[in-house]
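Researcher: Structure for this, please.
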Amino acid sequence: MKRVTLVVSTLVSALLLAACGSTTPSTTTASVATTTTVEPAQNLSITPAVIKSLLQAGAAYHSLPTKDFTGLAPGMTYYAYDPANITFYASAGLVASPNSLQAQIGDQDDGGYNIFVRVATAAHWTVYNDGLAAAQDVKCPITFPPSVLAVWNWKAKSCFPPQ
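Model: Predicted structure, token format:
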């Protein structure tokens, strides 16, 4: 009985090694190439919940209460998801409340345009002020993935919506 178990055990081991592609110096195995297809970036509709989160993040970035902003600038708000790096991107101008002189001054001095980046697993946005990116001599604070720029119809290496 012990001999049968030893023979069966040896055969099973040999089969497992063969199945795993084990080689000896005198033999070779072919490797199989695999490819992974990553979906392109997706242009997303902005929801009230996303607007709220962007306003909160933008206000905090500018050290102001959320109530100092009334919304996001129409025609200047973009939102996308890039599955290649599992990250959400948004860009928006914050609309200053007429009751907040600090927010109005900030919009005027800084240009009031912000870039938001959030890894899908993160709870909060990272905010970058890009109010002056429309100027030709200003460097963008981040590099957007080309697929995000494409779904937003922005120029390559751009940091601001087309004008």
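Researcher: Any notable elements?
Model: The two ends are 84 Å apart (CA to CA). Strands lie at 42-43, 69-72, 78-82, 87-96, 113-119, 126-129.
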